[in-house]
Amino acid sequence: QVRLVESGGGLVQPGGSLRLSCAASGTAFDIYALAWYRQAPGKQREWVATISSGGNTNYADSTKGRFTISRDNAKKAFYLQMNALKPEDTAVYSCYMQHSWGQGTQVTVTS
User: Fold this and answer.
1) Which residues contact 4 (CB under 8 A, 6 or more apart)?
2) Exposure of 80 by Cβ count < 10 A (0-12 exposed, 13-18 middle, 19+ buried)?
3) How far apart are CA 106 and CA 94, in angstroms?
4) C-alpha–C-alpha distance, residues 108 and 48, integer Å
5) Are the C-beta atoms of residues 97 and 84 closer than 8 Å to each other?
6) Residue 59 Cα distances to 1, 63, 88, 105, angstroms
7) How far out from the chain centre does Cα 37 lie?
8) Could you read off the pLDDT of 53-88 as tens digits, one per residue?
9) For 87, which DSSP code?
10) CA angle, 65 as apex, 28 and 98 as ends, to 5°?
11) CA-CA distance, 53 to 72, in Å (whole number)?
12) Is 101 helix (H, G, I), strand (E, B) or coil?
């Protein structure tokens, strides 16, 4: 059974940075694509970024150039580096792998 645990959310001012982490356990890791999603209050969950097993990355237009997804197969972990944060980035961020979700971590961008 896959278990994903996120960390790294918090409160940050516009223009600031945060790094989210997602630690996986219970399954093989390096063969799967990994993703981050987010859900803002009153809105549907939206896809943020994906990294393939081979390291290829894709980003939502709203995050391209500001966010970077990466993975560390040895640690069974993946990350979302978020720079130049905007108030509209405020959301609960969740990691996803192999039909499993993390519990979510709150990111709040406000002055």
Assistant:
1) 22, 23, 24, 95, 96, 97, 100, 101, 102, 103
2) buried
3) 9
4) 16
5) no
6) 27, 6, 16, 19
7) 6
8) 999 999 999 999 999 999 999 999 999 999 999 999
9) G
10) 20
11) 11
12) strand
Sorting pLDDT into bands at 50, 70 and 90, what band is 49?
A: very high
| Tokens linked to 74 | 């040895």
Lowest pLDDT segment from 9-18, 27-36, 52-61, 99-108: 27-36
Contact at 8 Å (CB) between 8 and 18? yes
Q: Do 96 and 34 touch, CB atoms closer than 8 A?
A: yes
d(CA 56, CA 73): 14
> Could you tell me the strand order of the sheet in which 77-82 lies?
3-7, 18-25, 77-82, 67-72
Number of Cβ atoms within 10 Å of the Cβ of 97: 20
**Which residues pair with residue 39 across a beta bridge?**
92
